[in-house]
Every structure is written in structure tokens, then in C-alpha cells.
Design a protein that fits this description.
- This protein has eight helices and seven strands, in the order αααβαβαβαβαβαββ.
- Helix 1 runs parallel beside helix 3 and helix 6 runs parallel beside helix 7.
- It is an alpha/beta fold and 212 residues long.
- Strands 3-2-1-4-5-7-6 form a seven-stranded mixed beta sheet.
Length: 212
């Protein structure tokens, strides 16, 4: 059950953390309303997070915007409910986003949300391995949120890293363990910083990743 008063307060809190233009905020409002409508039939996010949708999901995604400087084409893997890819697309109109989501129902939501928000995005209703073969344009950045453990995520993003892309991933406080495991098979040049929205969250910025 959505508490509209709580949701409105959460929106204010989120936009204090990650300020955006008035026009972008309006488009994000459209995304949230569309998201809540679809949530009734397709679980796009845990029901317990809906009253904090803005801080938990929207601002969490928006905090990656500075990392996308210079990136004209972005691939978001496991886009799900649009986090972070669609949110970032709405907030950065000059960039093209490729949203990859293998769940056909979630992909349908994404296509409708792209239409409603007029985001500069293309949706791929398929696995990352398949989409990577079809995305022919140069990719400058790969994004992901709560999609897969780092070793698997690196492997899935490997075709883009091999073409010179960087990566920025929203991860948990367990990132050190994931990096230790990944180092057995990968040489990774990375930085880690704390999340602005979750004291347990971490942001992993990958400048370069190569298979050993």
C-alpha cells in the first residue's frame, strides 16, 4: 500500500541528495507513476521499498550521473525496473542508453516507460550475451545495479570492456569480497566510494578490466 504523503516527503529528500532540473523532475514523476501502475501486476521492486522509491531507487541511480561524463553511449545490464539505466537516461538527454533486460514482462515495462518519459533509450528483451552481439555502436560505459556478483558481471560486460568501455556498478558493503574473488581471474583497475543514499552501499568505478 502506497502512502502518498510518505512518498512525497521521500521525493523531497531524494531531490535534495541528487538535485535535477525542474523538467527532469517532471519526467521522473512520470516514471514513478508508470512504475507504480506496473508494480501492481509485475514486481519491479520489493513492496517494502515503495514508500521510499525516490531515495531507495531514483536518487540511488542519479548519484552515478557524474561518472557518465564523456560517455555518449551507455549499456545498462539487468535494467529491471529502470534502475539505474532509465533514470540516468531521463536525466541525461544527450546520451543514448541501451537497456538490457531478459525478463520479457520487465522489458515491456521498460519500453512503455521509455515512451512515457521520452527517454533516449533502446530496450533489448534478451540476455546480455545476445545483446552484446547486436549492439554495434561504440559503448563508453556499462552500468548495473544489484544484478550479479562481480566476477559474473565482469564476464557479462567483457565484450564492452574489450571495446574500451568503463564500468560503474552499484554494489553492497560486500564489494571487497567480490573484488578478491574477481582478482583470481581478472586484472581490474578500479575505485570504490561510498553511496550517497545507503550507508551500506558502495559504488564501484572500473577504468579497465581484462581477463588474466
Amino acid at each position: 500500500m502506497i502512502d502518498r504523503d510518505l512518498l512525497a516527503k521521500d521525493r523531497e529528500a531524494a531531490l535534495r541528495i541528487t538535485p535535477v532540473s525542474r523538467e527532469t523532475a517532471k519526467r521522473l514523476d512520470l516514471l514513478v507513476e508508470h512504475f507504480l501502475k506496473w508494480q501492481r501486476v509485475v514486481q519491479l521492486a520489493a513492496p517494502s521499498t515503495l514508500n521510499t522509491l525516490w531515495t531507495r531507487h531514483i536518487a540511488d541511480s542519479l548519484q552515478l550521473l557524474p561518472d557518465l561524463d564523456g560517455a555518449k553511449e551507455v549499456v545498462d545490464v539487468g535494467s529491471g525496473g529502470g534502475f539505474p539505466g532509465l533514470v540516468l537516461a531521463i536525466a541525461s538527454e544527450e546520451k543514448k542508453f541501451h537497456l538490457v533486460e531478459s525478463d520479457t514482462r520487465k522489458a515491456s515495462f521498460l519500453r512503455e516507460a521509455v515512451r512515457v518519459t521520452d527517454a533516449r533509450s533502446e530496450v533489448y528483451a534478451e540476455r546480455v550475451e545476445s545483446a552484446a552481439k547486436r549492439i554495434a555502436t561504440p559503448i563508453h560505459m556499462v552500468t548495473a545495479r544489484a544484478f550479479a556478483p562481480l566476477p559474473k558481471l565482469l564476464e557479462l560486460a567483457r565484450p564492452f570492456f574489450e571495446r574500451g568501455a568503463r564500468g560503474v556498478f552499484l554494489k553492497s558493503q560486500d564489494i571487497d569480497d567480490e573484488l578478491t574473488t574477481a582478482a583470481k581471474s581478472w586484472n581490474v583497475n578500479y575505485q570504490v566510494r561510498n553511496s550517497l543514499t545507503d550507508p551500506r552501499g558502495r559504488i564501484l568505478l572500473i577504468e579497465k578490466a581484462e581477463r588474466r
